[in-house]
Amino acid sequence: MRIYLDHNAGAPLRAAARDAMLAAMGPPANPSSPHREGARARALLEDARAAVAALIGAAPAEIVFTSGATEANTLALLGGLPVDGRIVTTVIEHASVLAPARAHGAPLVELPVDGDARITAAAVVAACNGGPALASIGLANGEVGTVAPVAEIAAALRGRPVTLHTDAAQAVGRIPVDVHALGVDLLSLSSHKLGGPAGVGALWVRAGFALRPQLLGGPQERGRRAGTENVVGIVGFGAAARAVSADHTATTRMAALAERLWSGLRTQVPDVVRLGPVDGPRLPNTVNVRVPGCSGESLLMLLDLGGVAASLGSACSAGAPEPSHVLMAMGLARETARDGLRLSLGPDTTADDIDAVVGLLPGLVRQVRGGAAA
Amino acid sequence: MSGGVDSAVAAARCVAAGHDVIGISLRLARDGAGGCCSLDDFHDARAVADRLGFPHYVLDFTDAFDAAVVQPFVAEYLAGRTPNPCARCNQHVKFDRLWQRARELGASHLATGHYARIAVDPVTGRHALRTAVDTTKDQTYFLFTLDHEALARTLFPVGDLTKTEVRAEAAALGLAVADKPESMEVCFVPTGDAAGFVERRAGADALRPGSLRDGDGQELGTHAGVHRFTIGQRRGLGLAGGPARYVRAIDAATGTVTVGSADELLATGLVAHDVSWSAGTPPDDGAVLAARIRHRHRPVPARLLATAGGAAHVRFDTPGPAVTPGQAAVFYRDELVVGGGWIASELPA
Q1: Dihedral of the CA atoms A309, A312, A315, A319 (nearest 10)?
Q2: Residue B61, CB-side half-sphere exposure with 13 Å CA sphere
Q3: A173 — contact with chain B (CB < 8 Å)?
Q4: The whole model's pTM is what?
Q5: ipTM of the complex
């Protein structure tokens, strides 16, 4: 029996999403086709769009389906940057924000964070002074769970020639996200982080915002993203979004279990260090810890061999964890920044799962330390 | 597990022997270096692990590899020596840092796909390296730093196979890597252009340009840096006409590269430093050995003149070419490695 505590990398497919996708599979599914089959696909697509929009308090027409949050981030940065604007972001953003920001060639400000991966609204606003800009500030950091003051930033930037984008891939489904309460222009979200299939995501585009499309060659998604929609995947995304919307206690459940995990670890491994904010806004499901003198790499492998899936922060495609750029930005040394063990819970995580991990980890710590000292 | 056929078959043999196997691949070279540690290699290794049914992990050792292998590689070339990165990698990365990780995982042994065998002295119980059955593939030259303790926890499952047999075993197991070509170059310099690599890593200011001179000190030309030369090198000297000339000495301090005839390249022996001995203590002075001074070099009969302070003075029975500082000198008695160290210089006259 495996225990899965890597929801920030990708959640298991929800049963509702799987069922909806299975039901949608088979018939021709080009929503732009003029026949009945096309109309059926269109209905499925628009039903999913409504579900995703409802999850974030948006209007369906504001949802642009993409191949994932990565594409949504690229579309937001390249398609939302004002003419002659600079890009303002933070050093802890996901690579799908930092890489296009660095590749674009526009003047770029990468704001530092404090030891808990926090930025202040004032720092973002100051960096946006003096002309058009696009600010891309992740709503929640997937490695340590810090939640950024995006609504405060939006309020302070109101009336300025600044596009405000937030990558909410790690936030949606874990904390309440409402686009109007946030006050942003663009918001990225991911399907597989909330129990839909991978390969689907969306960019929410505020009504009236003039987004420049980046994929050309078709009128799909109201001309904002060409290409026949991945209807089956989007149907799964919609079903997952609906399940998230219906689960009103997920946040408090996960928060209670995360606290159970953290207090259990602290009791069992007294010198364990929590990375990220201990109080203040943070994701309810993310516990990132470091055990001094204990290789995170080794702990991760031993956990996996012992039946627990966790991670060392952001996954690399080779599966070889590099030092975390987030932890280094928080001031950890390069070697130490390899040792952050991220345990990220999901809506189906149980108290038994947590107790099993708390029971397993201290022995693994002793083993690694014994091996390291021998 | 590099993703190649040798480590795949080594892993398969461990599984067949009933061991509880964990596969590990190391990311050593940084992005863009190419040639090794590519995603494809890791996927190949993982496919083998999946097929054989054991867990597999990729560890990022780029920092350790850079510090222990790549930086010394550059520094050695800049100092006029010719580095041996594979031996250093085995010493510091694979059989040290990787072993540390393996031990943390509770492993009792580390198995690799190297072509070498391990012999146990029936009297003393000490472990020593023994050449591989496939002498054309033997890698003991790169493994000489492994001492008794390291060898006691090491397995070389393909050491008693020929490469042909390894490929056949991989094919019989249905492993997709059975016909994968093997890498011949230094893994982080896949193009083989070591000089270019050194120039990119070190920067122009660190290079040691100077002159090419003959044995009498006569200047024959100039060069862009001592890192472009190795002892015994004939090509790329930029000297037109005349008899064949070879690099016989490199002085990084003055930038002087001395060339000479093939006869002048002959050395009577070598001095090695940081020498380790398989028995734990040096053989008696005068001991008869066979000395290998580069990979694929046939060990030549030699005699140990003296040992002191970790150094060894060795005289060849017949003078031989191209004693190259920075390379390893590995000493054999029949199939057994009796010791080895790093070449400091030719044996002084």
Answers
A1: -70
A2: 27
A3: no
A4: 0.91
A5: 0.87
